[in-house]
Write a sequence for this structure.
């Protein structure tokens, strides 16, 4: 059995190979039951949550991500969220590997955005704006740069110092990395806008968007959260990672549906459709495309299988 800590997971999942692995996974046949959630009582502290996210390929591999959320840990300067991934043989149940779930999740999330961009952003896209400076931000930059020949990366954050620190962490790249403070101006100058925040009120306004842009929304994962307003959804050709998740969990989509001006059938396609060629990707050079992801156990399974392949750099 392979044991991969965060550093080993990072070495084992270069973005070019991971993006290809996700593409093949969405083209294939994977069983993905609904995730289950359990509340765990923690005496003297707020209740914790246990999330179980399984997926498997018949005759292939079986995996489950185990996520714990214990808010009370913050009082003891401990992480409130933990994640571990267990990979097994789907034929005999033998354990193949145990992986750091946080690194796996960050990398597969960024790779899913890059996979969507491969189909949806203009091939001549050269300027990326990243909105947010959290753990996902550097992954999104490197993943997007894998599928598009970026010349310039702009970073905006609520805390300018955090944006400067993130920019300074990049060196010897084929693109420049700089910070910006005027979000509207930055959005209007970018070819790709990638958002990874915990915003509950929109940061991106639809009236700011221009022809030919691609908007990548990663951060929101509940109906109450959203990084872009309803107008941004309405002026865009909308794609999602999976309809089953995005239509009920993504605040941008849920609130657009609630407005009455957007219907479920207005979603052009998901990653299954894009990778299988059953929906139209970018419809024209002037189209504004929007990709909304909330994550899928398919992505975890594909990443874990790639990371544990014999001969991988773990």
């Amino acid at each position: 059995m392979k044991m991969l800590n965060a550093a080993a997971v990072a070495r084992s999942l270069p973005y070019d190979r991971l993006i290809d692995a996700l593409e093949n996974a969405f083209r294939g046949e994977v069983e993905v039951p609904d995730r289950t959630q359990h509340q765990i009582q923690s005496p003297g502290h707020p209740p914790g949550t246990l999330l179980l996210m399984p997926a498997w390929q018949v005759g292939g591999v079986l995996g489950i991500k185990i996520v714990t959320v214990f808010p009370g840990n913050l009082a003891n300067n401990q992480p409130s969220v933990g994640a571990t991934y267990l990979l097994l043989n789907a034929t005999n149940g033998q354990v193949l590997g145990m992986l750091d779930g946080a690194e796996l999740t960050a990398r597969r999330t960024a790779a899913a955005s890059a996979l969507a961009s491969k189909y949806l952003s203009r091939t001549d896209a050269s300027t990326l704006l990243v909105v947010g400076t959290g753990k996902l931000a550097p992954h999104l930059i490197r993943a997007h740069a894998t599928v598009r020949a970026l010349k310039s990366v702009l970073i905006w954050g609520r805390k300018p110092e955090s944006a400067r620190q993130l920019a300074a962490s990049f060196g010897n790249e084929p693109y420049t990395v700089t910070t910006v403070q005027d979000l509207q101006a930055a959005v209007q100058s970018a070819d790709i806008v990638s958002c990874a925040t915990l915003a509950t009120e929109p940061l991106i306004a639809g009236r700011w968007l221009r022809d030919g842009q691609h908007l990548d929304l990663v951060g929101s994962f509940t109906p109450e959260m959203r990084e872009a307003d309803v107008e941004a959804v309405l002026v865009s050709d909308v794609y999602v990672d999976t309809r089953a998740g995005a239509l009920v969990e993504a605040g941008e989509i849920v609130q657009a549906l609630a407005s009455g001006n957007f219907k479920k059938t207005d979603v052009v396609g998901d990653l299954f459709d894009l990778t299988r060629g059953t929906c139209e990707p970018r419809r024209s050079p002037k189209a504004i495309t929007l990709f909304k992801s909330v994550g899928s156990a398919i992505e975890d399974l594909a990443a874990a299988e790639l990371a544990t392949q014999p001969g991988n750099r773990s």
